[in-house]
Backbone:
């Protein structure tokens, strides 16, 4: 049953939830099973182990919570920090804002470093603050790797260099919700202490898993962290990991089989390196289209360009919400609206997850049509052509078909 | 399990099998059931009755065979004709050729009216032959409504006018495999005696149902037709229709539930009139793209343009098969090859079934990329832009979303 | 892919997760969709509203959390209570124990009323404590409606009578994880303030939804409750309910479509009253089988009999875990083990969710075989016969088939 | 959407269509794909090759027709015989009757050897006829391996011995619709010339594939056989086998992926030998139950007992159709009715396909309840107990779980 049926496929170009490919739908098409049977730990261990590859870690411990990204945030914070702890966090868009709001409600002492929406984290200011913090009163640095509302990717390697340069022991907590599994992520190399993502983004699964990886240092911190947590407590998971039954409460077998299929697609069939290259290719193509349309990115500098979502600024006389509406009403194209202070000013094209070149080109053609509908005089085909030109050069043969 | 996995969706633009939309996949996602239970006739009767709407008939009787289009052909011919019967048939492409081949093997005396591949049926010659047939020795006229290999749609109303003009009693048999459910089809108005289609085309189902509609005259003819048939015999169906158990042998419940879902999509959700308009819109858009690319249609005159498949002629130094290959290998785009005597000379873009504007535009963008790969100097975006321009004008708001 | 494949169906008779019927699997067999589209609130509102029927409430507000029962517990407690609040809770088995453990970790002052595992809540003691609490220092009474580990159902109407008799204003919080949707539950009549369940039990869905209903009094209490909560905060939901976008973070569309299908099965197709009667019938049949086997229920008195799970005590020389193991290894039958202090002493037969008489009889036959395997001299067919005798009398014709 | 919904699983115990297990449903849960892509021959060749294992042949050539068993019959007959050919066929029940009817309509000269319904083929008479046929005017012997209407399995090895003993060159054609993949079948050893089955029986697939295997001798005979065939002509398949594109017309990709999954379950996961042993075990258990009920098998001698279907004779004052009706109306149990001359006199329990012990025991319990409903004084549990006793002895541990 569909509430607003339309012929053909929905073109899902919000920056998550993303398209669920058939192999994942197939893997999930199953009844429940007994999570206490011997079969279950086999499945569980395989995904708990393999999911670490998309985080770029062998050293960390992963926790797969039956929750969303918001729950994963809460798990990350409460397991390593104590109420009153001073933390630095960057406000660069709606999702960093929401995380900061959560931090405050969890009673941390948040030093918010704000940037324009469209800019990346102000790392110069971070450097200054860390350098000045001789007492190491700053317990954590929290950063969103990819700000989904503005299409801004922060440079985590640089954050690590700043922490190391200041010889500062603060924990590094990273929201990788719209990056991990799509963008290069090196948890071990960047010495990220807690990283997290959600299932409905790069993994192309339904919503329902909040995946958190904790470095050995984070696990150590968890032992003394005083924030209250029960459902989100890593300690319960660690206890059941030891027991071999893995789960402190009933997991979703469907989601775990789905995760297994997703990891197989990413790690075995396509290869993580190729997945990341594909996201870069699609991101570049999208940006070239935006340029050809004569529009500007919300992202203020190329160094912050996001390969998973592109936020496009519309001329001031146009309401970006109208573009999103007409795209859905006429072309069955789902775009992202502008959120909060950039509502009406930007629309967003998500290009992450299990997605390919022609799907993107179809969507870009749809954006052009929607732009025309709201009165923006785009040259039809212009963005598509620019994207095509890039893709022609950048797209390799499909590995399995060479 | 996929043999040649690739990220993202397969872009299925062969002229059948077509994309199976999620509501149909959902309807079919079920175990077997007892076809002798009281539930089964309810389902069966509903589809046997409603499927007639896409044939444009209330007078005819429908038969849903567990077979393919080839089987439906055989059922159509053997139920109304006798060995040695003289019939006229038009050879205008690969599928009419295959049907004629079947006619010959079934021992009919086939008078083949051949046209160039790319031309429609030579109706002038038909007129002449019928007019000359004072003895009414011609028992049937067999015509493919839409020749899938060349993208040619024949004018069935004109055929009827010729038959009526000649006051000729020959039965009119129509292959509507790639037309019925997508193109306007008026079985009653055109006094078609036998019309048939297959499930994997406009109905967007898996292969497996060959659907045949027989006019009252055809049913009458069936009583005396001497062609041998058992599996494909209408009489067995008619017997079980009367008994209320409908099926002379075990049907596929999954396919019937799928057909029910397909008919709901076409007749209730979108509306048959809108479905046909959508096919016309997508057909026009495709032809405009071909023109913009500087290429020619295989279809020789606009009156024969097909709204379900477009066959594109490539320059003589290019092998159209290479376009199809690279589209699949690099862009996960499935196009139709040229068949038989036009192999290497044309490729085909199917645009039928449950499909929308942006899916088509993505595919057209893919064709442009494939053309470039084989050295044809297409201007990227040119065909997309031409198609977009048409679609912008011709596409209505999605009914459920107004 | 299955880790321990076996021919035929798995006989899933753990007391949750339960069998997911085909209509729910079909409803969930879909890709992601944009949760910000106009379609989403339609679906969301329908389930948020209709789910209240299985709670027996029109007055309460429902919250559908992407979590498990454990998360629902946390949401229930933290939204209406403050740290240090004195609450009474009943320890009668493993799940009440786990909830109490959570209460303690959440810093409530829990007065635990313990019973034997197999007995119900000690309501006499509750009465005494409430009567003595002139100061109304007790802020909440927390009770598990149906203790899944022992097969004990508590009498909630009696609890309400005691509270009312004592004119005590304590909030009444009820874990209905293995009861709501299967047992009679009258939230409004019993003046339950917070009731909760999980999707993988009576609703026959995958794990992933923790559903909490809050009475007007509970909502009022939530305004001043000082327990820290963010992910589980009702206030965020209430804010988005008002805005009409419903969800403070991304929901699982698949689970919501599944919930819609589940509610349709329960409320429309079978009827809640019939669902409850069916559970009673299956529970009685199971208990008659246990008696015929010469075994004892863990449940100590008939008044506490559970219609969703039966815990069976095995003779002391037998390890109940061996029964569970051999049932799975030889007959693909999944039974529940004994938990914690009754490990090895009881095994459990879950009989809740979308399940019918012959499924149960097959499982009872399997239990008999497993009992024989471990050396218990059960008469084959004895329990089945006892259950059959009851079912023959108690089972009505299937409503749709009369 | 279900027409007569009922809680819990349908207990499908008709002798086909059979239960489709989840791995097959998952494999089939997919959109269409281009059958001309390079992926398709890979899949096609794998199933064309592997399906021969369930026929017990390496020498034969297999043809997978998009049809039903009835179509497979027609394909078998028309490819190796010519009109007027004298053939011997055995009439022992409804399905042999229907096949004979088809033979007559196809203009063969059928010498029908009739037996009581419940008896096997009269092989003594066959011997006599063959021995007397010095001229070798008998071109074929057609036999149903397992007569689905009466639960009678014929001894094919004996048939071969008789043919060999008489040094008679008649072709041996076998209907294995309800046997192949469930009963021991040795096409090569028994020198069967044409054997056939349908997908909805032992293979546990939906209806839609008619699978025919032809021995080298049969292929040779096909070269000169004069029966008219087009859709069912092996020659077209052989042509496309050589070309490597395999299919003369569009196949169902879903059914082929399903067949791949089915063969994997049978050949790899369980093992064909174990599958056959399981069917024997379930058949024996069912027969022991019938005996315990005080009822008689339709099968007249033990040597003809069928391990895929048991036909049970009811006392003369009972209408077996009432048993089938009440089983469906009250217990969601689907049994087979008596067909044709044994209508009302027998009901049938199918026990083939992907099925296990406890599923069968649940169904047997249901049969007992249905028997009581129609007034037959069965002792509840008696048949279940008899079946259990057998299964306890005969059932091995599940291979993957040892």
Residues:
């Amino acid at each position: 049953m569909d509430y607003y049926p339309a012929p053909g496929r929905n073109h899902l170009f919000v920056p998550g939830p993303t398209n669920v490919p058939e192999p994942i739908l197939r893997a999930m098409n199953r009844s429940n099973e007994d999570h206490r049977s011997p079969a279950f730990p086999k499945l569980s261990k395989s995904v708990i182990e393999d999911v670490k590859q998309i985080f770029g870690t062998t050293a960390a411990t992963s926790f797969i919570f039956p929750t969303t990204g918001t729950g994963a945030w809460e798990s990350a914070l409460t397991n390593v920090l104590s109420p009153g702890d001073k933390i630095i966090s960057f406000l660069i868009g709606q999702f960093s804002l929401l995380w900061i709001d959560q931090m405050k409600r969890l009673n941390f002492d948040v030093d918010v470093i704000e940037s324009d929406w469209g800019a990346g984290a102000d790392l110069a200011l971070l450097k200054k603050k860390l350098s000045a913090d001789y007492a190491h009163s700053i317990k954590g640095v929290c950063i969103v790797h990819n700000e989904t509302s503005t299409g801004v990717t922060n440079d985590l390697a640089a954050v690590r260099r700043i922490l190391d340069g200041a010889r500062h022991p603060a924990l590094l907590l990273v929201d990788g919700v719209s990056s991990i599994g799509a963008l290069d992520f090196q948890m071990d190399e960047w010495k990220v202490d807690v990283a997290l993502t959600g299932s409905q983004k790069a993994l192309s699964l339904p919503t329902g898993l909040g995946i958190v990886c904790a470095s050995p240092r984070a696990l150590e911190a968890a032992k003394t962290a005083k924030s209250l947590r029960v459902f989100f407590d890593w300690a319960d998971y660690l206890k059941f990991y030891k027991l071999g039954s893995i789960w402190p409460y009933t997991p979703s077998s469907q989601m775990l089989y789905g995760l297994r299929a997703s990891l197989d697609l990413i790690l075995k069939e396509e290869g993580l390196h190729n997945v990341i290259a594909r996201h870069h290719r699609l991101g570049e193509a999208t940006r070239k289209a935006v340029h050809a349309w004569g529009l500007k990115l919300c992202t203020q500098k190329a160094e912050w360009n996001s390969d998973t979502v592109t936020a496009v600024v519309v001329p001031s006389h146009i309401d970006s919400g109208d573009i999103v509406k007409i795209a859905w009403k006429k072309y069955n194209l789902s775009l992202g609206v502008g959120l909060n202070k950039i509502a009406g000013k930007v629309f967003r094209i998500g290009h992450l997850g299990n997605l390919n070149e022609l799907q993107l080109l179809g969507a870009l053609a749809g954006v052009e049509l929607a732009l025309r509908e709201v009165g923006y005089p785009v040259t039809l085909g212009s963005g598509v052509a620019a994207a095509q030109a890039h893709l022609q050069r950048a797209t390799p043969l499909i590995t399995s078909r060479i």
Remarks:
- The mean pLDDT of chain A is 97.
- The longest strand of chain A covers residues 138-144.
- Chain A has 13 helices and 14 strands.
- The two ends of chain A are 40 Å apart (CA to CA).
